[in-house]
Design a protein that fits this description.
mainly alpha, HTH gntR-type domain-containing protein, WH-like_DNA-bd_sf, 2 domains, DNA-binding transcription factor activity, two-stranded antiparallel sheet, Arc Repressor Mutant, subunit A, Four Helix Bundle (Hemerythrin (Met), subunit A), single chain, 251 residues
């Protein structure tokens, strides 16, 4: 020990470097998979045990890899439910937006504040998407509505499809700044969606009725109807959203 700090032997230092190098390699492998779209945004990753078997390493290495991926914004881990792929943010502006929202999660804003911003952004995305959505966009939205219909007794899968539905409408505007603006809001609201549909199962059916109305307006290429359907859906969503979800700290 020198100056109260333990001195590692050469062997120990070598082991530490070897461990760090293995983690770096695992992170690189998973980043490549995520960038290539092997796991879709919102999709749940395999369990630690499954990943360890797939990659041929121990679970402690997998835990370290997942921690690195969380730090880099690739995934989000929901307590008791697993790790899910997050939308990627490439612009510093987006990181700044998310940082400000995270500060607000300590009590600076309410669910009413959150929904006021969602209404402002999402009514406009629905209005624009009604005239800009491609056939591929509409097909993706139909698939997500079908997933929510099939998952009306499965809060986890419903929540993932719900979040992706709103992001898909933003992408269908053809303006990349709309999904960029909405993505951090969805990061905040997704926990509340899960909490609400877990405790109030009818909320899934009610919410999906709203999604179907929005989709019908988009398919009809009716901007005014799409904006109105989105406003109605968000008004319903607000009535089921548990405000405590905004301020509960992650374990």
């Amino acid at each position: 020990m020198r100056g109260g700090v333990p001195i590692r032997s050469d062997r120990e230092a070598c082991m530490v470097r070897h461990y760090a190098a293995r983690v770096d390699l695992l992170v690189e492998q998973m980043e490549e998979r995520l960038e290539a779209g092997q796991y879709a945004v919102g999709e749940k990753l395999p369990s630690e045990m499954e990943l360890a078997a797939d990659l041929g390493v121990s679970r402690p290495l997998i835990r370290e890899m997942l921690a690195r991926l969380r730090e880099r914004g690739y995934i989000e881990t929901l307590n008791g439910r697993g790790s899910f792929v997050r939308p990627r943010r490439s612009a510093p502006m987006l990181e700044m937006m998310l940082e400000h929202i995270s500060v607000g999660a300590q009590g600076d804003y309410s669910a009413d504040d959150l929904y006021a911003v969602r209404r402002m952004v999402e009514r406009e995305t629905a209005r624009i998407a009604a005239s800009k959505a491609t056939p591929e966009d509409l097909r993706a939205l139909r698939d997500l509505v079908q997933r929510m219909t099939e998952a009306e007794e499965d809060p986890e899968n419903y929540t993932v499809a719900d979040a992706n539905f709103h992001l898909a409408i933003a992408r269908a505007t053809g303006n990349p700044l709309f999904p960029a603006m909405l993505s951090p809001l969805i990061d905040v609201v997704v926990r509340g969606i899960y909490d609400s549909v877990t405790t109030f199962r009818e909320g899934m059916r009610g919410g999906n009725r709203g999604h179907k109305a929005i989709l019908a307006a988009l398919e009809a290429r009716d901007p005014a109807a799409a904006a109105a359907a989105m406003a109605d859906h968000l008004a319903y969503s607000r009535t089921t959203f548990p405000e405590g979800s905004l301020h509960r700290a992650d374990p």
